[in-house]
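WARN no homologs supplied; continuing
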Amino acid sequence: MKPTKQQNNQNKLRNKFLKAGVKMTGPETIFFSNDTKIGKGVTIEPYVVIGSKVKIGNNVVIKSFSHLESCKVENKVEIGPYARIRPDTILKEGSKVGNFVEIKKSTVGNKSKINHLSYVGDSDIGKMVNIGAGTITCNYDGVKKSKTIIKDKVFIGSNSSLVAPVKIDKESIVGAGSVITKNVKKKSLALTRSVQVEIKNYKRKSK
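OK structure emitted
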């Protein structure tokens, strides 16, 4: 069966990047756009899709089943597996976006980590921030989008919801399971959590 025009174009793009030194373990499963730009020392694992307007720096690793579009990836960034990088996103040098993370219209600062199961939208994240699993920036109230600002060296505990517009100042901590609706001051601990109730010697009802 004769290859289609699109297949021929993809093969040309793959060969172009292979010759330029991009490491691909399954090139036939990786899809590029005509305007894709890739630096030196980049590794792309199988089943990655790179949409239009993507610029990738040096020494970047993109792991399997990730999707990128209209974004800028700086040097020494690690993405995926199963990451979705949506338009107007900038991943600064040394940042890490892990599995099942979606980022849209946001900047992720140098050496900041969003390792798993998170949604970050309309956000500005500083340097050396750690965002725990299950964190969501609640950026849409049904009418308009609002911004979340997270300053340098903030730690966001797992399963937290940050209700925009909101600002988390430098070196603060958000306790796991919190819903943050107000600004958090520098070097503070913020948490919203119900009191744990324990009933001793509790007996379950029998049928």
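The chain has one domain: 5-190.
OK
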